[in-house]
Specification:
Helix content is about 25%, strand content about 35%. With about 475 residues, it is of the alpha+beta class. It folds into three domains: about 130 residues, Immunoglobulin-like; about 140 residues, 2-Layer Sandwich (Dna Ligase, domain 1), CATH 3.30.1490; about 130 residues, no CATH class. Helix 4 runs antiparallel to helix 5 and helix 6 packs antiparallel against helix 7. The longest helix has about 45 residues. The N terminus is likely disordered.
Amino acid sequence: MEKEKASIVSKKAKLITLFVIMLILAGVLVITSLQRQNEPDEIMNKSIVINDYSLSELESITLMPKDEKSVIFVRDESYLWVVKGEENNYELIQNNIDMLAYSMISLNAISLVEENATDNLQQYGLDNPSVILGGLTDGTELKISCGNKTPTGNSYYAMVERNNSIYEIYTSYADVFLSSFIEYRVRDIIQAVNAEDITYLAITKPNAETIVIAKTDNEETNSPIINFSNHQLTEPLKSNHDISIEKLRLLVENLNSLTQAKDFIDMKDVSIAEYGLEKSHIKITIVDSNQEKILLLGDDIANSNLVYCMIEGDKTIYAVDKEYVEYFTTLQPMDLILRFLLLVNIDAVDKVVVTKASNEYTMEIMREITNDDADKDGEPDAFETYYINKMQVDEDSFKETYQLAVGMLVDGIAEDQTNIEDSEITIEYINNIDGAKNDTISFAEYNDYFYSVYCNGVNEFVVSKDEVDKLLVALDSFG
């Protein structure tokens, strides 16, 4: 009993202590809140106004980045920023220049560091700074020099010429003042490409066959072959092949990254051959709903991870990321296509005949029309009975075996020549489409691991013997 009383007293003491602590914390929060309410006013009071002009008073901006060529921005008749004195003017990012303009005309400093500074500018990084000049309509010139970061790393040193005073300015101002000319230029070499919008794309490389991708019309045709893509590889293989949607999107992703310029090259008074662009290392032709462009990729730029690039017929030379150039350098046809050997629609097939030497295997679908009235798909109802080697089987068993035939994947290009007369195995798909030819696949010995494959007489690929053996083993299991 005494222990229970002691336990109750102990719990009460803990509750009282916890309540006192909560009261103290509440008091601290109230005091802290009251102090923070005054902080914005104090910060505003401490800020030093350096420039306070209206945007209409600013008529020019001279950008003088450290160790770079100067550029002057002026307004044209449409009140858009352009580069002064450029006959073929650059395409500029207007919002970025507006940000530069606003930063100049409404510049505030955190603190004054030194008045009438003339010596020891090096300690502030102001002996060789990035400089911004602003020309006002009344003839006044605003000159702001931006130097190093302060020791805290949260601000920068800047100098205003009219009083040679050095200030500590906010990082947000310095980020703008230290920007290179490239930050104000549109870096898109071409318009962004969307995979679905491509109508034609060709990749030409020296000593290699051109890779061509073309958009196809996949409307219903008189063919039992299934097409999964709206784009096909039309060159350099002997026949057209569906492009993998995922692989096409990867290609486009690399193309869009490639065509974001890393720099703009000041073209000297020399031929484009000096940049490796007259006989380009890679030529990419792009045609889509928005554009028709030919992209030329030239020599590597010394001491960098960049490559010279230009649009055929244009005068601008760009520097682009070598990482994305290498994607196109190594790209092969097999990297793009769906690797199914031959996808024959089961609904279009009545019979499949597989032969190996003297053995013949059959897969057959008997369809009995049960209702002449067309169903939702426009086809009459049919009752299907499945046979393998003339033995009736269930639907699942038939389709699993059929999948082993149509699901075969090619493993690569057949480099060595074989002869169709030497074929050891054939698969014939007998279809039920009026006027359509039956499809035949023949397998000839290639080496110990692969068959050389002939699809309707055309030899392009090799297929693993294991793939074919799986089908034969499955067929053997049915009688």
